[in-house]
Every structure is written in structure tokens, then in C-alpha cells.
């Protein structure tokens, strides 16, 4: 049987729970439009505004926590927030709805609340005194009570189920716990108002500062320098730190206080390791943290997908990228950020996860897709990539894999530019296209006898053609360059060369039902494919799926092994736990411990070897057919 007040009554409404704000918004709108005395219902606007600001404070703290390039050296817990924790904390803001309802009831029962003055300094002083003398000890003892077996198992265990502290964890609790918090936060407000010192500014200030410190305590990045406590030793009893509260989540019988460790000291529950751990974390903040074993060097695709980041919207980044209407208002701001990144930004840490005790990180070159096709920008892009490779080499990274346009043949020869320029590199540079080719080639059914290939003379196109002709599959290679075709033809075994056929028009494939798209094709060009055709593709961006009588493959990708830890964001349009094949290729290279660079042309003889290695390490192909 479910314990009372252990579940939210609107938990099954999903996004429609925000309709609960509707009466407040409707009341405020009606008063504004049709009533002479607008101030009469000003309380509705205040409640809505406070709720918005509270959500904004939590979002700012979340963004800061997920800016790993700023916080990585001050992490308290080294593991990442995974998809499970994100899903569990999805409705972290339920408490704001609850407290909005309670505030609305109070405003209706006590109309005098609508006539409070804007400012009264005595109210701030009174609320602070009431908080210290009543709210802090009340919360301390209530919190200890919630750690009793029955209350913990039925209520408080939900809050402690989040393995990594995060600002959203502060709101991840049951209705009963948030009702207690309502009392804790409401006593100073009520007392100040009853004393005659209440004000609108006092209500805003007290509520928002309360939320600020709640988020601070649940941050996984330490923000309070230990030097403060060295200069003001007594201050450690009057303000907690993220490290202090994290110890409560680790060792649950200590550090129960709300914001003031003084009450833990008085109650003999202050963890003696708090100050030492805090000093250790903040002392190491200027040093490099744990060295990653593998780095995937990515880039930004476009302005809209640039918002698909954990430090923008954590929940949105935890799902595959899709265009959403709510992103449009943020387009101008993102465009400005793109210009700033173009001028001043450096390659930065974007995300990370752990796989079999190895740290894997994604670094991002601060360039957008369109910039790779600007002739004057290529030198700067290569400089960023080179600096990232050299930095990885200095740190001791074992493998760095180049994503998409970072290994463009026209840009740097698939990475050969850097390997030739720095022959002493210890880090292995990998383009990952061998596994990309393997993924595409293993999508085919064994009875395929003929394929049509666009982008036939590209790096992947060449490898695909040479591999298939060895399997006695006829390849219609779309290219207008006879010279390039002849060069590839000479690489094929003599007895297989007749399986490679140069074609110059899409019409040549009107009877072929297997198309491999390595160069973007228009809807008109797709029309030449017969009904029932499947479009395999390795072109970026993917072609438009306009043919309802055909099927379309996704970009080559593989699912990471199930023992991956701390993964909490999706890689562009990939499903959860799925990465692009070039990312997976770098992972396999690192897990296998291969000592060679994988740059330039694809070694066709290694395609099967890399594929088998990927499967051996638990990576799995993703079904690519989307009807």
C-alpha cells in the first residue's frame, strides 16, 4: 500500500501539469483586461513571477553544474548523472506547483497580503532571526526524524535515490517532505508579517535566497573556497557547502542541517571529515583532474542543435535531438553565442562517461558545421583540432577520435595532416571510419547482388566499393571523374574489377533497390529509385525521407555496452546509449589497445577485424531501418 503523501497527485499528467497554473494566469489576465482595480489581484502575478524566478534559479544552477569545462576540477563525486537519475528527477519542479497552490490559498484567505508595502528593512531582519531560531532547528530535527526507518523507507529514500547530487535533486522529494519545507520556509514569512514588518520584497528575497542555498547544497561542484573558512573560522558553522551536504548523501547519519552546520555541532551529528574534504577538493581546483583514456573530438552541427546541450536544458539533451518550437525564441541568443565562440572560444569539455574503469570524454571544437565550408576558416579550424590533439598528447590520453567534419579530407586529409606534422605523438589519432564502413556493410542482407553508390570516390565510398566487389557484389559507382574511378578500380583484385561499374546519372539505378548515399541527393534524384528501395547513408546531413514506398537508414551508429556508467546526454539525433560509428571506432581502438594511427584512407583489409572487435567488446549495431 502506498503511504499517504508519498506520491504527487498530478504525476501522471506529464507536461500538462503546468495547466495547474492556469487559474492564476486566467485571474491575472481577467483583472488586467476587465476590472478597474488591477491591484486587487496583483497577488496572482506575484505568485506566477516568484514561481518563474524559482525555476530560473534552479536552471541556472543546473547549467553551471553541467558546464564541465568550468567545474571538472571541483567535482565532489566523479561519476556523471545518468539517464536513470535524469528520468527520476524529471518532475523536480512539482514542489513549486504545490507551494503556488498554498500561496494562492493564503492570498484568498488573507486579502491583506495584497496590501503589503514594497519594502521594509525590519521585515528582512525579523525573517532572518526567525529563520535562525525556529526554521533551522525545526528542519534539523524534522530531517533527523525522516531518517527513522519508516519515514525513510516510505518518503525520504526517494530524495536519497539520486546517486550524484544535482540542483534538481533539491526538488526531488515526496509531497510530505515538501509540506514540511513549506512550514520551514513559511514560518519566517508569517512571523514577519504578523509583527507588522512584512513586505513584498521580503517575500521575494526570502523565498529566492532559500532556493539559492538549497541548490548550492545539492551542487556537485564545490563553489565555496576553503580560504574563507581559514580567515573566518566561525563562518563554517553558519553556512554549509556542497561538500558538506554531499557527505550527508554519502554517510546518511551526519550533516542533517538546513543551511547552518551549527545545529549539527549542537546535535553531535557534524561529520568530522567535512572540513578536510572541502579543503582537499578546493585545493585541487587549479589542477588537472583525472586524465581521460579516450577523447571524441566533436563540433557543433548548427545553431538549433547547439541548444541540445546538458548545460542548456538537461532534460532536452537527454533525448535525441529533434527540432522543437520552444527553441525558436532562443535562436538569436544562440547566434550571438556562436559569434562569440568564433572569436574567443577554445575547445572545451562537453560530456563524459565511464566504461570499464576508463574515462571517456567528448571535447567540442567551437565551430559550427557551415564554418567548415568557408575557405578562410579552415586554417583556424585545423589549428583548434591540432591544439586539441597536442593537449590530449600532453595529458596522456591514449586515443583521440575525430568526428564528422573534423576529419574532412579537404580539411586535413582525414587526420593525416596532424600525424605527419607531429610524428612523435603518443596519443593515437583515429578517424573511426573503418568501423563506420563496417556498420554500413553489415546492414546488407547476404542476397544483395547489386548496389548503387553515391559519393563513390570519397573515403567511405572507396572502401565500400572495394569491400563489396570482393564479395562479388556489383557496385554502380556514381562519379563524373573517370580518373578517380580508374584509381579505385586498380586497387581492386583483378578478378573483381568487373564488379565495379562507373555511372554518371541516377537513372542508371532505376532498377536497383539498394542505394548507398554518400553524397546528398535531392528529392528529384531519389525519384529514380524503384519502389521498395532502401537508402543506406553516410552523408551529413541525412537525406530527406520523402519516399513513402521506400525505407531510409540512419547514420551509421552503434550502441555502447550496457556497463557504461554516467552517460546522461544523447549524441545529436542518436538514441540513448547510441553513438556515431566514428565515436564507437575510437572506443574500440582504445579498448583493443591498438598502437597505430587510423588516418587517411580506410584499410579495407581491417574492416572485418574492427567489426569483430566491436562486437567482442559488447558494442551492438543499431537497426537502421525507419519506415
TrEMBL record:
GO MF entries: iron ion binding; oxidoreductase activity
Keyword Membrane: yes
Domain Fatty acid hydroxylase: start-end pairs: 129-269
InterPro entries: CER1-like_C (IPR021940), Fatty_acid_hydroxylase (IPR006694), NAD(P)-bd_dom_sf (IPR036291), Sterol_Desaturase_Related (IPR050307)
Transmembrane segment boundaries: 12-30, 42-61, 96-116, 123-142, 325-344
Domain named Very-long-chain aldehyde decarbonylase CER1-like C-terminal: residues: 451-621
One GO term (biological process): lipid biosynthetic process
Lipid bilayer topology: Multi-pass membrane protein
Gene Ontology cellular-component annotations: membrane
Keyword Transmembrane set for record: yes
Protein name: Very-long-chain aldehyde decarbonylase CER3 isoform X1
Biological source species: Gossypium hirsutum
Lineage, highest ranks first: Eukaryota, Viridiplantae, Streptophyta, Embryophyta, Tracheophyta
Amino acid at each position: 500500500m502506498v503511504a499517504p503523501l508519498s506520491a504527487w497527485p498530478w504525476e501522471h499528467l506529464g507536461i500538462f501539469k503546468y495547466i495547474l497554473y492556469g487559474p492564476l494566469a486566467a485571474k491575472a489576465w481577467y483583472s488586467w483586461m476587465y476590472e478597474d482595480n488591477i491591484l486587487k489581484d496583483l497577488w496572482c502575478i506575484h505568485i506566477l513571477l516568484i514561481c518563474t524566478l524559482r525555476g530560473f534559479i534552479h536552471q541556472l544552477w543546473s547549467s553551471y553544474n553541467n558546464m564541465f569545462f568550468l567545474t571538472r576540477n571541483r567535482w565532489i563525486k566523479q561519476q556523471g548523472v545518468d539517464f536513470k537519475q535524469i528520468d527520476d528527477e524529471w518532475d523536480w519542479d512539482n514542489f513549486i506547483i504545490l507551494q503556488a497552490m498554498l500561496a494562492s490559498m493564503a492570498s484568498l484567505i488573507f486579502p491583506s497580503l495584497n496590501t503589503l508595502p514594497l519594502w521594509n528593512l525590519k521585515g528582512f531582519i525579523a525573517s532572518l532571526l526567525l529563520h535562525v531560531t525556529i526554521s533551522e532547528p525545526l528542519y534539523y530535527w524534522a530531517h533527523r526524524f525522516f531518517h527513522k526507518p519508516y519515514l525513510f523507507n516510505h518518503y525520504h529514500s526517494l530524495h536519497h535515490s539520486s546517486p550524484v547530487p544535482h540542483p534538481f535533486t533539491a526538488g526531488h522529494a515526496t509531497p510530505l517532505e515538501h509540506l514540511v519545507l513549506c512550514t520551514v520556509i513559511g514560518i519566517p514569512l508569517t512571523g514577519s508579517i504578523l509583527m507588522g514588518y512584512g513586505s513584498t520584497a521580503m517575500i521575494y528575497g526570502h523565498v529566492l535566497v532559500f532556493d539559492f542555498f538549497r541548490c548550492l547544497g545539492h551542487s556537485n561542484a564545490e563553489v565555496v573556497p576553503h580560504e574563507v573558512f581559514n580567515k573566518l573560522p566561525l563562518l563554517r558553522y553558519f553556512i554549509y557547502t556542497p561538500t558538506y551536504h554531499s557527505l550527508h548523501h554519502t554517510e546518511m547519519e551526519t550533516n542533517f542541517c538546513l543551511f547552518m552546520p551549527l545545529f549539527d555541532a549542537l546535535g553531535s551529528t557534524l561529520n568530522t571529515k567535512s572540513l578536510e574534504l572541502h579543503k582537499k577538493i578546493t585545493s585541487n581546483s587549479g589542477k588537472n583532474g583525472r586524465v581521460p583514456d579516450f577523447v571524441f573530438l566533436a563540433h557543433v552541427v548548427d545553431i538549433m542543435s547547439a541548444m541540445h546541450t546538458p548545460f542548456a536544458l538537461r532534460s532536452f539533451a537527454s533525448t535525441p535531438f529533434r527540432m522543437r518550437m520552444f527553441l525558436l525564441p532562443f535562436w538569436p541568443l544562440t547566434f550571438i553565442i556562436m559569434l562569440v565562440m568564433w572569436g574567443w572560444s577554445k575547445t572545451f569539455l562537453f560530456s563524459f562517461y565511464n566504461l570499464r574503469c576508463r574515462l571517456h570524454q567528448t571535447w567540442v571544437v567551437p565551430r559550427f558545421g557551415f564554418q567548415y565550408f568557408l575557405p578562410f576558416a579552415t586554417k583556424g579550424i585545423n589549428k583548434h583540432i591540432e591544439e586539441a590533439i597536442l593537449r590530449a598528447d600532453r595529458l596522456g590520453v591514449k586515443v583521440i577520435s575525430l568526428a564528422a567534419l573534423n576529419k574532412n579530407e579537404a580539411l586535413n586529409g582525414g587526420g593525416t595532416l596532424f600525424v605527419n606534422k607531429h610524428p612523435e605523438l603518443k596519443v593515437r589519432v583515429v578517424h573511426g571510419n573503418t568501423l563506420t564502413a563496417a556498420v554500413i556493410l553489415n546492414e546488407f542482407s547476404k542476397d544483395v547482388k547489386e548496389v548503387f553508390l553515391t559519393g563513390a570516390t570519397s573515403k567511405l565510398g572507396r572502401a565500400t566499393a572495394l569491400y563489396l566487389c570482393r564479395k562479388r557484389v556489383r557496385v554502380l559507382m556514381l562519379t563524373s571523374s573517370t580518373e578517380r574511378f580508374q584509381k579505385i578500380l586498380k586497387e581492386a583484385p583483378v578478378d573483381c574489377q568487373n564488379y565495379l561499374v562507373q555511372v554518371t546519372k541516377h537513372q542508371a539505378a532505376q532498377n536497383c533497390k539498394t542505394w548507398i548515399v554518400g553524397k546528398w541527393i535531392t528529392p528529384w534524384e531519389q525519384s529514380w529509385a524503384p519502389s521498395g528501395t532502401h537508402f543506406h547513408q553516410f552523408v551529413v546531413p541525412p537525406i530527406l525521407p520523402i519516399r513513402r514506398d521506400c525505407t531510409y537508414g540512419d547514420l551509421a551508429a552503434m550502441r555502447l555496452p550496457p556497463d557504461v556508467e554516467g552517460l546522461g546526454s544523447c549524441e545529436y539525433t542518436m538514441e540513448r546509449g547510441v553513438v556515431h560509428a566514428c565515436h564507437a571506432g575510437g572506443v574500440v581502438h582504445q579498448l583493443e589497445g591498438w598502437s597505430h594511427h587510423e588516418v587517411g584512407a580506410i584499410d579495407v583489409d581491417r574492416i572485418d577485424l574492427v567489426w569483430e572487435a566491436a562486437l567482442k567488446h559488447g558494442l551492438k549495431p543499431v537497426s537502421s531501418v525507419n519506415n
